[in-house]
Amino acid sequence: MSSFWTGERVRLRGIEPEDWQWFMEFDAHTHHQRSLDVLHPPRSAERHHAWAAEQSVAAPAGDTFRLAIEALDTGELVGSLSVNEADPRTGRFRYGIGIGADHQRRGYATDAVVLLLRFMFGERRYHKCEAAIHAFNDASLALHRGLGFVEEGRLRDHEFFAGRHHDLVIMGMTAPEFTERHPFEKL
């Protein structure tokens, strides 16, 4: 028996208290913080530990949640993803993903996103996924284009960091567009 949450390269799982050190190391890289969000002040090891412990017991808020991405070949934590906004009435959700620098360009993000979209489209009945990506993040833009996302718009000078404003690219994919590339399993 295989798990729905296991792909070809990764397994999506809940965050465990012992994952705190990985998140602390991830947050230590300015590039990682900025590619996902904005630069935050440093947090103590104890604060990272408390955060991971909180995440490990937190119940999803509706269809918003955060998962760890674990490499199948090593069992190592390589990233995380989260559904940030989910609106069942409109059938739209937004998500974010981060892969550690040592684990990028190995197909982990692609595999993790396909698992997430299969769940949100095929099990939760959402119709559309949106991703907001900084315009300078060429790797993320290429990832999303490769998955079949379409650029839907650009919010000019939308985010401020590193001393200037940056554009935010909005990309989207519908459930039919996803299933055309990744058909659901026949039961």
Structural description of this entry:
The protein is of the alpha+beta class. Helix content is 32%, strand content 32%. The chain contains 6 helices and 7 strands. The protein has helices at residues 20-27, 30-36, 45-57, 108-122, 138-147, 175-181, and strands at 10-13, 65-71, 77-87, 92-99, 128-134, 150-161, 164-174. A 7-stranded mixed β-sheet has the order 1-2-3-4-5-7-6, with helices on both faces. Helix 1 crosses helix 3 (45-57). The longest helix is centred in the middle third of the chain and has 15 residues, at 108-122. The chain starts with 9 loop residues before the first strand and ends in a 6-residue tail after the last helix.
CATH architecture: 3-Layer(aba) Sandwich
What is the total number of structural domains? 1
| Regions with little confidence, pLDDT below 50 for 5+ residues | none
Order of helices and strands: EHHHEEEHEHEEH
Number of strands: 7
Amount of helix: 25-40%
Oligomerization state = single chain
Query: Briefly, what CATH class?
Result: Alpha Beta
- What name is given to the CATH topology? Aminopeptidase
Structural class: alpha+beta
Short summary of the structure?
The chain has helices spanning 20-27, 30-36, 45-57, 108-122, 138-147, 175-181; strands spanning 10-13, 65-71, 77-87, 92-99, 128-134, 150-161, 164-174.
List keywords for this structure.
187 residues; 32% helix; alpha+beta; Acyl_CoA_acyltransferase; Aminopeptidase; GNAT family N-acetyltransferase; GNAT_dom
List the helices and strands and how they pair.
Elements (H helix, E strand, L loop, with lengths): L9 E4 L6 H8 L2 H7 L8 H13 L7 E7 L5 E11 L4 E8 L8 H15 L5 E7 L3 H10 L2 E12 L2 E11 H7 L6
Helix pairs in contact: 1-3
